[in-house]
Specification:
CATH architecture of the largest domain in chain B: 3-Layer(aba) Sandwich
Number of domains of chain B: 2
Oligomer: heterodimer
Order of helices and strands of chain A: HEHHEEHHEHHEEEEE
Number of strands of chain A: 9
CATH class of the largest domain in chain A: Mainly Alpha
CATH architecture of the largest domain in chain A: Orthogonal Bundle
Low-confidence stretches of chain A: none
Distance between the termini of chain A: 36 Å
Order of helices and strands of chain B: HEHEHHEHEHHEHHHEE
Structural class of chain A: alpha+beta
Number of helices of chain A: 7
Largest interface: A-B, 26 and 23 residues
Low-confidence stretches of chain B: none
Number of strands of chain B: 7
Largest sheet of chain A: 3 strands, antiparallel
Chain lengths: 194, 254
């Protein structure tokens, strides 16, 4: 989340019209040397300061203009993310979604067998809640057949089928109950639970 | 039955082979063959690994052609295939290399798993395409089948020479049945009964799980959740014989 780039503003102000080394900036400000190095690296990437060969720093035209305007500086992203994205995180629901895409027709036990790991807390109820929401949003459907009804009085367990495979990223439940599909980058309405 | 995944000797062998594949000497030798008779847990093991590692998982079809193979591969990446084979090959290669570098940043191995690979192991056109991907991009391909892949690859020595690891899934041992019983069964199973299950099922996971389900039902009803022994289950049909389809009865007087 973007915050106020306090250190960068302080370093920018400390350099001002001068030409300073990182040590001189650290001596001038109540910051340790490592924090100064981090701040100047970010200011260089913003093109607000230049680094000279002798290790000194000086404001660029852009930096001087920014300082004179007195604007607030934010520490967050400065443009859209256009580079390659890392693979999805290995959360239980992400693994469960991958398992659903592999199996297409599945029961709860199939998905937990493939997706659950030692550190997962209560994967059974987690999956039940999530599957309920996915079903209400039209991603999965419950089939009329039931699996594992071995005993005389056993009703077996539900069998599901994946209906909407929109991509590799697992849909997430939003506050208020709607589903956010990271593949489509859109909110999918979800029928209220009975 | 409890829900879980038992780490059997076959699973350990598969993971050991993966480790060896990652440490291989020849970069172009990045094919792996996993085979064994049906019901030994190949698909579950591979799918569990695929889910963990976000690898591409394809199921070969009997009538697969190189074009159909590329279409299925591109579909996994949500890429609309172009018309010519040449362009589709380039699309697939670019997508795989992009995913491979993303996975490398996350310290994971990217691979393409092809299940039911017996269907394609004699199809030199598809196997040569796999070899091209493997040679040009060092993409790891794992071919999973029921035992005919090794024999069929003899006819394609240029592909067989790229196979860095062979893993054969063997019938479960007594220790594997013990691990399965401890992981899946809600009632404690005596060693004598676990050994009997191992013997009569010939070590096939599917039959072992069926037998454990029978033991659990019987144990809950008749033993009150206490240790179920072989002698206690005498006369009970524990599982059907895979070859004959006839029920196997636990013998009396053991």
């Amino acid at each position: 989340m973007a915050g106020t780039a306090t250190w960068q503003i302080a370093v920018l102000g400390a350099i001002g019209r001068g030409v300073l080394t990182a040590d001189a900036i650290a001596a001038h400000l109540p910051m340790d040397r490592h924090s100064v190095i981090v701040a100047v690296a970010r200011l260089v990437s913003r093109r607000f300061i230049d680094r000279h060969e002798d290790g000194t720093f000086q404001l660029t035209e852009e930096g001087r203009a920014f300082l004179s305007r007195g604007e607030a500086m934010r520490s967050g992203p400065r443009g859209p993310h256009t580079g390659p994205r890392p693979p999805p995180s290995s959360s239980f629901r992400q693994r469960a979604w991958s398992a659903m895409r592999l199996r297409r027709r599945f029961g709860l036990a199939d998905i937990i067998t493939l997706a659950a790991r030692d550190g997962d807390s209560d994967p059974d109820s987690n999956l039940r809640r999530w599957l309920g929401a996915l079903e209400r949003a039209g991603y999965v459907a419950t089939l009329s057949t039931r699996a594992g009804a071995h005993g005389r009085f056993s009703r077996g367990t539900k069998v599901f089928r994946l209906l909407r495979d929109t991509g590799p990223l697992a849909p997430a439940i939003r506050q208020g109950g709607a589903i956010y599909d990271h593949n489509l980058r859109e909110v999918v309405p979800c029928r209220p639970a009975r | 039955m409890k829900i879980g995944f038992a780490e059997t000797a076959n699973v350990a062998r598969f993971h050991a082979a993966l480790g060896s594949l990652e440490r291989r000497g020849a970069a172009e030798a990045c094919l792996m063959v996993v085979d064994g008779r049906p019901g030994l847990g190949k698909t579950t093991t591979l799918q569990r690994w695929a889910v963990e590692n976000e690898v591409v998982y394809l199921r070969a079809k009997k009538e697969w052609t190189p074009g159909w193979f590329l279409n299925d591969l591109l579909d996994e990446f949500r890429i609309t295939p172009q018309h010519s084979y040449q362009r589709r090959f380039a699309q697939a290669m670019e997508a795989m290399l992009s995913r491979q570098s993303a996975m490398a940043r996350a310290k994971k191995t990217f691979a393409v798993v092809i299940d039911e690979a017996d269907h394609i192991s004699r199809n030199s056109r598809i196997m040569e395409s796999i070899r091209d991907f493997s040679d040009l991009g060092d993409v790891v391909f794992i071919l999973v089948g029921m035992g005919r892949i090794r024999e069929n690859l003899v006819l394609l020595p240029q592909v067989a020479s790229r196979v860095a690891q062979y893993v054969r899934f063997e019938p479960a041992t007594a220790a594997d049945v013990r691990a399965l019983a401890d992981t899946l069964c809600e009632v404690p199973v005596a060693d004598c009964l676990a050994d009997f299950v191992c013997r009569v099922t010939d070590g096939f996971n599917r039959e072992i799980v069926e037998a454990l389900a029978t033991i659990e039902r019987w144990g809950k009803r008749n033993a009150g959740g206490e240790l179920v022994t072989l002698a206690a289950m005498a006369g009970v049909a524990i599982v059907n014989d895979r070859r004959t389809g006839q029920p196997i009865i636990v013998p009396e007087g053991i």
